[in-house]
């Protein structure tokens, strides 16, 4: 068995370099920037009024001023700033050279062309040219574009950006016991749930996910499904990974030329995880138990799909304080389904009592996986532990 960290490093090494595509900005939110974006604008492009009011000279404060012009947003005033004058200005208007402050109109009194500043503000209310960003400023690649990034790119006058193509992920559930939601299971059958969850996690990580028809427990059926996944960048299988007589995934994958990076991980749940390359893509073989499949998808598949798009720093862990004491751990790194609540400095984390790896009802209530390293000793309430947030 290898450690989770070793396994994760091997999984990430399966990622091909991301491929790029050029997208219009309004299609790019949520995508991973692949090439630097270089601003074509300075923002603001001119000293700009932050308030509706009057542009004037600091040196003239205390004097009655003559209003000699007007500058609205989009309509600059082109005269020159003579001593003893002011111009009417509106938020976003260009402050003409020579004026060094804008007084908000609430602090002034206007009488025809004449202006008195009744109570000068402390702030000059001028946004200096370039105070936001300058021409040539860069947004570096490797980040997921947020709505704020999209606005920034737009303001930089970049109508399109190069983002990573969405990796194609094929998700394959296998087992004679499985039928689709909505079908009537016969004796001994259950509903296939994992493939839907794994596809949802893959999509949330930026992939285009296809759910393949359920494979039956036969080599022929598996070969057929593997063939359907030929064009995928990543094939994720679920189940059939363990040592039972009907656990055929590894056997078939190897016959098809899979170079296996590893098989067993010191992890709970998720011990029988496979990873390697098959054909032109990567393959991850997740264990069949629903919680095991979904935990492994979060711990391994999600960072892998991110790496395929050039997104770094995925899988970051956070800290919380234990809500109750915990017994010592065994040899495998344990990912416990847990609930977070507010704490004084850090959040408090409380693992559920029943950690069986088949319990979807528990997983659905969990908002974190609390991580306990192999052979972690007894822990007291209040001690700091690490967790991986779930489903964001
Ligand atoms: N003798 C041993 N038995 C088992 C071991 C072991 O080390 N020695 N490991 C156990 C562990 S840990 C796990 S995890 C499971 C993993 O087994 P498989 O990956 O081969 O998964 P299956 O046997 O196919 O299925 C396990 C369980 O999950 C259900 N399942 C499978 N696919 C789906 C799906 N798409 N949707 C919902 N439920 C699914 C399946 O019906 C089984 O109940 O092996 C242990 N055994
Ligand atoms: O490791 Mo299995 O994944 O316990 O359920």
Folded structure, characterized:
The protein is α/β, with parallel strands linked by helices and 392 residues long. Helix 3 (194-204) packs parallel to helix 6. It starts with a helix and ends with a strand. The protein has helices at residues 4-12, 147-155, 194-204, 219-228, 249-255, 290-308, 360-365, and strands spanning 20-24, 37-38, 48-49, 53-56, 65-71, 85-89, 101-104, 108-111, 114-117, 126-127, 138-139, 160-164, 168-173, 178-179, 190-191, 208-211, 234-238, 259-264, 267-268, 272-278, 281-286, 318-322, 333-341, 348-351, 368-372, 384-389. The strands form seven sheets. Strands 7-4-6-5-9-8 form a six-stranded mixed beta sheet, with no helix packed on it. Strands 16-13-17-21-20-18 form a six-stranded mixed beta sheet, sandwiched between helices. The protein contains seven helices and 26 strands. The model has no long low-confidence stretch (mean pLDDT 95). It folds into four domains: 4-17 and 165-308, Molybdenum Cofactor Biosythetic Enzyme, Chain A; 21-43 and 136-164, Molybdopterin biosynthesis moea protein, domain 2, CATH 3.90.105; 48-127, Beta Complex (Molybdopterin biosynthesis moeA protein, domain 3); 318-389, Beta Barrel (Beta-clip). The longest helix has 19 residues, at 290-308. The radius of gyration is 30 Å and the shape is elongated. The site of molybdate ion (MOO) has 8 residues, from loops. InterPro entries: MoaB/Mog-like_dom_sf, MoaB/Mog_dom, MoeA-like, MoeA_C_domain_IV, MoeA_C_domain_IV_sf, MoeA_linker/N, MoeA_linker/N_sf. One of its GO terms (molecular function) is metal ion binding. It catalyses: adenylyl-molybdopterin + molybdate = Mo-molybdopterin + AMP + H(+).
């Amino acid at each position: 068995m290898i450690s989770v960290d070793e396994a994760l490093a091997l999984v990430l090494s399966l990622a091909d370099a991301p491929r790029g595509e050029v997208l219009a900005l309004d299609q790019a939110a949520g995508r991973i920037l692949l090439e630097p974006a270089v601003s074509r604008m300075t923002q603001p492009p001119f000293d700009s009024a932050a308030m509706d009011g009057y542009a004037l000279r600091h040196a003239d404060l205390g004097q009655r001023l003559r209003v000699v012009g007007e500058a609205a947003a989009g309509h600059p005033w082109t005269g020159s700033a003579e001593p003893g004058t002011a111009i009417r200005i509106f938020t976003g208007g260009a402050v003409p050279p020579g004026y060094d402050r804008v007084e908000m109109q609430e602090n002034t009194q206007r009488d025809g062309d004449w202006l008195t500043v009744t109570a000068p503000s402390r702030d000059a209310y001028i946004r200096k040219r370039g105070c936001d960003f300058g021409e040539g400023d860069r947004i570096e690649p490797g980040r997921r574009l947020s709505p704020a990034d999209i606005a920034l790119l737009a303001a930089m006058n970049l109508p399109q950006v190069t983002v990573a193509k969405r990796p194609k992920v094929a998700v394959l559930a296998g087992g004679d016991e499985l039928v689709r939601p909505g079908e009537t299971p016969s004796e001994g059958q259950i509903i296939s749930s994992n493939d839907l969850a794994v596809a949802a996690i893959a999509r949330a990580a930026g992939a285009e996910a296809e759910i393949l028809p359920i494979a039956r427990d036969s080599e022929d059926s598996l070969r057929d499904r593997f063939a359907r996944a030929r064009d995928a960048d990543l094939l994720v299988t679920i189940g059939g990974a363990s040592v039972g007589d009907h656990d055929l995934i590894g056997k078939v994958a190897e016959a098809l030329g899979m170079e296996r990076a590893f098989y067993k991980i010191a992890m709970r749940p998720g011990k029988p995880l496979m990873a390697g390359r098959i054909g032109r893509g990567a393959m991850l073989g997740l264990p069949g138990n629903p919680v095991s499949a979904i935990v492994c998808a979060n711990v391994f598949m999600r960072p892998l799909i991110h790496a395929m798009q050039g997104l770094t720093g995925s899988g970051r862990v956070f800290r919380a304080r234990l809500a109750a004491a915990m017994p010592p751990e065994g040899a495998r790194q344990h990912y416990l389904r847990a609930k977070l609540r507010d704490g004084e400095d850090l959040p408090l984390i409380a693992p559920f009592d029943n950690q069986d790896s088949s319990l979807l009802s528990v997983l659905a209530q969990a908002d974190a996986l609390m991580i306990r390293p192999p052979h972690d000793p007894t822990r007291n309430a209040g001690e700091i532990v690490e967790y991986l947030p779930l489903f964001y």
